[in-house]
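Troubleshooting log. The previous run stalled partway through. Resubmitting the same two chains, unchanged.
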Amino acid sequence: MPAIKIKAGLCTGCRTCELICSYRHGAPGFNPALSRIRIKNRGMEKENPVFCRQCPRPKCMESCPSGALTQDPKTGVITLDPELCNACGTCIRMCPFGAMAAHPETGLPLICDLCGGEPACVTYCPNEVLIYAPKGGDPN
Amino acid sequence: MSDGYGGTILKIDLTAQKIEKIPTPTDLKNNFLGGNGFGIKYLYDLVPAGIDPLSPANALIFAVGPATGTLIPTASRFAVITKSPLTGLYMDSFAGGHWGSELKYAGYDALIITGSSPRPVYLYINDGQVEIKEAAHLWGKTTYATEEVIKKECRDPELKVASIGPAGENQVKIASIIAGTRAAARGGVGAVMGSKNLKAIAVRGTKGVKVADPEGLVNFFREYTAKFKANPGTGKDRPRYGTTGGPANNNALGILGTRNWQKETFQHAPDISSPKIIDQEKRLIRSTACLACSMSCGKVLKGKLKDQDLINEGPDYETLYSFGSMCEVNSFDHILAADRLCDEYGLDTISTGVTIAFAMECFEKGLITTADTGGLKINFGDPEIILTLIDQIAHRKGFGQILAEGSKRASQILGRGTEKYAMQVKGLELAGHSARGLKGMALGYATSNRGGSHLEYRPVVERSGKADRFTVEGKGQIVKDNQDMSTIGDSLVICRFTEPVFGFFLGGPYVEMVNLTTGRGIDLAGLRRIAERIYTLERLFNVREGITRAQDTIPERLMREPIPDGPSQGCLARPEELEEMLDEYYRARGWDVKTGIPTEETLNELGLR
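Second attempt completed without errors. Output:
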């Protein structure tokens, strides 16, 4: 299955991906705090973009005490059932990539859904730094 | 409200340690748009004429606009507005990076800081939570170190921090404010922050920004990003070189300020310029960008000095001019080191370099000697002396005590005819754009409310050939119209580098940006009125401080000494030419031609009475 990849060394930190992700996922405008992809700046020498890798054995899902997370066996996408989630934050702490964040108001985890197969972050990245390609291989 | 605004103005009285939040007034939004518009409105109302800019009576304002934090390319900048200790007049200075958008995401349109704290403090803003925190342990630290400590002690690596370094603390009149790796540098805004005992402002916001037409903005982003990429300047040159191609490019036209503007050609320009430094010497580590911007003009560059590895974001064109051609320094590594020092100490690289170039010429002419400089020989072409002087200026040590006042005041302190070598307008050191080789630039400098700034009238109008650079005809109107564009850009707030695509003059894209964000349905005439209102109120602030037509001028040298050699040899901005352009300019502005003061009729028309 395809996945989002990034040529991290070329990321300029323009955060377009965060803006479009938040908007496409229902923000009433633009809000990086609601984005499922995050560009964390780590000084002038690099950006540290973090996003869901659709792990084969997702730590987030395995650690969830209330069974609120499920994985689509075909796409690898993790889905949250907000009815079951008690916003304990375990999944966020357990993700080895730091790719999940809590919704600032509800505390529910924000997880990448690959926009149903056409990730907006990839489409809108102004420098073609984000790509959507089959798993494996190094984009750099 | 879905109008692009954060909705709240944050007022902080540092004397009383009082924090107050007020809803952003509707008439403020309608009449002054944002950014420098909000800034001048508050500054004019809060700061009476004649006060000492470094006293608690001054206000320090940080402002963003309706575009801030949205998908409009470059809209993460912020404005700093205050009464300048360098010029004694209105000042707005801007920085890119991501501090401005963070302020908006925390829900604020402006911070109005008044008074002065009895001890060093910093501000911590986390959405609605606002705290004045102790900063005694940060005092004396560089800007980069300050940011690191604050992120650590607030346990938030995603905080955006704007801070001053030792220069701001020591109230050096050319001190900057550094946000991340970007600088709001001009006019001594950092000194005002230092005078308030305010070391830093750390911001974190999670509220985002709501706009009138988000889908429209997504389309706007797509359409204009394609245009930015298709334009050779914004699509190729900026992403590849940032502004580092500037020295070579301006040198090729013979309009590169050199040797304190004694000349406008510099034989070593290509050595401190791209393509050499990026393509041949491979100094580029990576490029950085402001929000949603494809131009990525920020260039993180590397070098080596005395076996020491160097790195900094920058130097950009202005810094290559001020420390490079102006001081006739041909070592890129030294300029990189100077740039890094200025950023860490919190100094304006333009004013620092131009003030050092002033000292070099005074030394060359024998107007100052080692008796004045504490034994230092300050010669053009000496790359080491610029590093020594930067350190002295930031710490007000030795001869730096005098240069810390900026070139105009330094020349007044020194006397002996040094005044004519201070390359400044209204006290602000000239940016790297020729007033002799670009006729309109002479008028642009003379009428900039900031003083010697290249960001109100833009040199690119003539450099690009949009207007004939050798003639004065029509320049009054052109300069005014271009300033209208800058004023709106500074209120939205967006970057001037968008101008090749959004336009050098107000037009469709600017109207569209206002309407997509605010939903107010403004037309071009309405937008122009806002620009005129803001610029005229800035002028009124200056008039209140004693500015009239008499001060709307440029350094003698640029009116009396023709460019001595090179492709623009013989070019000059003659006094009578400047006067002719000024006449036309004041008429275009509706300001009195004799005095340069806005007329009652104009004030009534603009709702400023």
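Takeaways: Residues 122 and 128 of chain A are 7 Å apart (CA to CA). The longest strand of chain A covers residues 2-6.
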